Amino acid sequence: MELAEIEALVSKIKQDIECCECLKDLVDVKNEQLGKKSTFFSVALEGLNQMIRTAPIEEKKKLGALINKFKTDVLDCYNKKEIVLKEKLELEKLKEEEIDISLPGNDYSAGSKNPLFVIRDEIIKFFTSLGYDVYAGPEVENDHYNFELLNTPKDHPARDMQDSFYIDERTLLRTHTSPVQARTMLKNPNTPIKMIAPGKTYRRDDDDLTHSHQFMQIECLVVDEGINLAHLKSTLEKFMHHIFGMKRTIKFVPSYFPFTEPSFEVNVSCANCHGKGCNMCKGTGYIEVLGAGMVHPNVLRMCGYDDTRFSGFAFGVGVERLAMLRYGIDDIRRFYQNDVRFLKQFKEEFRK
């Protein structure tokens, strides 16, 4: 075999290596061309070895160097191509596993708070900003705290206004959060108090659009020396303006509650007609929102206060009623039905 033929064979092997497009093709070329039983070794190297055996002594060294050069050139070509193909394979894998961050992610946005709790939290925040303390008490209450300390003894006709869930003769589900006020005064006799008592209350009532056997109430109590009706009116005006806006006005309508004297129903001007009269307010121009009054002297005395020195005011408001008036909710039962469609209506409102 001539030297030119061997050089052509080496060139052909290198060309085959360069033409490989994947590692599998490269391995196939290696097995076919560079193995001990391959064409290169069996033909080219054998031809060179024969040439060495028959060559003059001075040529043997040159032919040996040529054999090593052929081997080195082919192996270098193979190794370089292997590196290129491995890098190519790695890039393809990275591309396949690449995360396209330009795509929108899954929507795991939070739901909306119940408007009942939004109003409750807003009321608490409003009064605490004015220096009021927040107190809580048991929902299963003793008749003594729920009625008697609030100037409503047994067989008092005012009890019929709060038809109750009795557990036994002396225990019931509280009908208002006023027992928290009585408990607080008993613990701090003849001490100034500014407090609110939010919580659930229970009354045996028909479930309809505006009534529920369970509802949430927030009661307010202020007791100190020199407290008068002007303080109550000022507090209620600030409160109503905060909840319904500065354009709303309030008025006191005389009423009766056994634990306050004098007692009032507090009406706020109708948002629909602005006090002119419409179907919503039944032509009166105002809507009743809460009951209020000056703390009855009997209540002060029973709770350990000197009624000749101390006076106070109190009012209680149904949180559901405020939420219904503010957001135009037509049925009190919607607050407790856990209907996602109802809650979604307020999602954007509560983000503001």
Structure explained in plain terms:
About 45% of the residues lie in helices and about 20% in strands. With about 350 residues, the chain is an alpha+beta fold. It has 2 domains: about 5-95; about 115-350, BirA Bifunctional Protein, domain 2. The strands form 2 sheets. The chain has a 7-stranded mixed beta sheet with strand order 1-4-5-9-8-7-6, sandwiched between helices. It has a two-stranded antiparallel ribbon with strand order 2-3. The longest helix is centred in the first third of the chain and has 41 residues, at about 55-95. It is rod-shaped, with a radius of gyration of 46 Å. The protein starts with a helix and ends in an 8-residue tail after the last helix.
The H/E string reads HHHHHEEHEHEEHEEEHEHH
Number of DSSP strand runs: 9
- In spatial order, strands of the major sheet run 1-4-5-9-8-7-6
Distance between the termini: 91 Å
Count of DSSP-assigned helices:
11
CATH architecture of the largest domain: 2-Layer Sandwich
Regions with little confidence, pLDDT below 50 for 5+ residues: none
Instruction: Determine the CATH superfamily of the largest domain.
Output: Bira Bifunctional Protein, Domain 2
Largest sheet: 7 strands, mixed
Residue share in β-strands:
15-25%
CATH class of the largest domain: Alpha Beta
The outline comes out as: rod-shaped
Q: Return the average pLDDT rounded to an integer.
A: 84
Nearest-angstrom radius of gyration? 46 Å
Structural class: alpha+beta
The number of domains is: 2
Percent in helix? 40-55%
- CATH names the topology of the largest domain as BirA Bifunctional Protein, domain 2
